[in-house]
Amino acid sequence: xxxxxxxxxxxxxxxxxxxxxxxxxxxxxxxxxxxxxxxxxxxxxxxxxxxxxxxxxxxxxxxxxxxxxxxxxxxxxxxxxxxxxxxxxxxxxxxxxxxxxxxxxxxxxxxxxxxxxxxxxxxxxxxxxxxxxxxxxxxxxxxxxxxxxxxxxxxxxxxxxxxxxxxxxxxxxxxxxxxxxxxxxxxxxxxxxxxxxxxxxxxxxxxxxxxxxxxxxxxxxxxxxxxxxxxxxxxxxxxxxxxxxxxxxxxxxxxxxxxxxxxxxxxxxxxxxxxxxxxxxxxxxxxxxxxxxxxxxxxxxxxxxxxxxxxxxxxxxxxxxxxxxxxxxxxxxxxxxxxxxxxxxxxxxxxxxxxxxxxxxxxxxxxx
Length: 368
Hints:
Shape: globular
Largest sheet: 5 strands, mixed
Strand order of the largest sheet: 5-4-3-6-8
Structural class: alpha+beta
Number of strands: 13
Radius of gyration: 22 Å
Order of helices and strands: EEEEHHHEHEEHEHHHHHEHEEHEE
Helix content: 10-25%
Distance between the termini: 23 Å
């Protein structure tokens, strides 16, 4: 997903005295053991619709053998939005390019190495991925439950295991005794559709004044710079920008964004800062953490996450923007249209982006 104006795209707890920790075996699988009397009824995980069986969907990275364990359907299903226009897809056999999956990209020798690197960066893993292992959705932690007395550590594990958007990184033999331990070993990551790069549409902008010069389709280069604009707007006195670019004479936003463009995209370094695949490395370099993975409408965002008042960067469909959350948002209640301005202030540069941000899907939220 390119982000510019021209293109669209989760309490601290004490472990019970009788509870055994959750451990990772050498093979990279996980064991869920609890000897408390009430635990037998809690070994099953409950889905929102009681009529359907629980489906366990997890991403787990074993740091000991560098194996990424993924759900079978994460492995097999077509990745939405990935087409032959994505450079890596063009390396697949012609008859495999119309419906691209993790399986195809991993199992093809023409794309495997590049895809593993993309997945490492997109999932923000601490080490390289050597192998990807698809697992049956029902193979682990897939028992039904009556739902009472679940316990904080079990809830924390459930939250980690039930999301394609979260990765649990585990060392061989590592044990978890508190929910904080589980949460500290888990983190959010990009979806495959966003960590696979699109074609480079910044070609030709090297050394150009992005305020005044245009691409081959007569579109101002400034229209591609929304992520740099958002970062610069969040950078008090442009302190980070000056340090990163070794440019001390930065007096305003335009100069800051130009300096950042020249830093990221030049004759020797071509970081596609407008592409979602580059967002993890750029935001991490600026000290940002991934707070939320969507997509979600702005109205429904409080149903999926709470947000404290403060400053964030939202990656919405086709755009990145500095957002001020004006007051704390408690998870649980959707916002009506008339309440959106009360809670959110969007700070786009109007020469870069002119659409109504509130109508767009929120894909990722970054915060410090």
